[in-house]
Amino acid sequence: MKEITRINHVGLRVRDLDISRKFYEQLGFEFVAGPVGPEPAAIVEHPSGININFILNASDDAPQDNILMRKDMKYPGYTHIALEITDADAVSKKIEALGITITERVEINGAKFFFIRDPDDNVIELHQPASR
């Protein structure tokens, strides 16, 4: 459908708004609103225009690990979000200085990317495309 122009937002179920908000603010996201709506949700947005809706209805007794990223069982569903960056080396140093663990580093055909996890074990890829 040519009418689709971009991703409007990503919905991300989280356990604790304050903890998630603090983590994503370290990545440059800014709190916009919330909790609002029937689910409820809170909204953060990065100056680049990336918008994440924190869905605030996670069950207290849900497993702590991300079920989609379990090693043995491969469940269908969204596995991660990839945020494009301009300098993987500089960003990885900033991430490490924040005390955030980098779980994997990859370089393929000039593209550099690495992975981190948020407080709810959701995977975030920070991706520097190959030079064009």
UniProtKB/TrEMBL annotation:
GO biological process terms, semicolon-separated: L-methylmalonyl-CoA metabolic process
Gene3D superfamilies (UniProt xref): 2,3-Dihydroxybiphenyl 1,2-Dioxygenase, domain 1 (3.10.180.10)
Full protein name: Glyoxalase
GO molecular function, one term: methylmalonyl-CoA epimerase activity
Keywords from the named record: Metal-binding
Record bears the keyword Metal-binding: yes
Organism of origin: Enterovibrio norvegicus FF-454
Domain of life, source organism: Bacteria
InterPro entries linked: Glyas_Bleomycin-R_OHBP_Dase, Glyas_Fos-R_dOase_dom, Glyoxalase_1_CS, MMCE/EMCE_epimerase, VOC_core
Pfam families: Glyoxalase (PF00903)
Record's keyword annotation contains Transcription: no
Domain VOC per the UniProt entry, residue ranges: 6-129
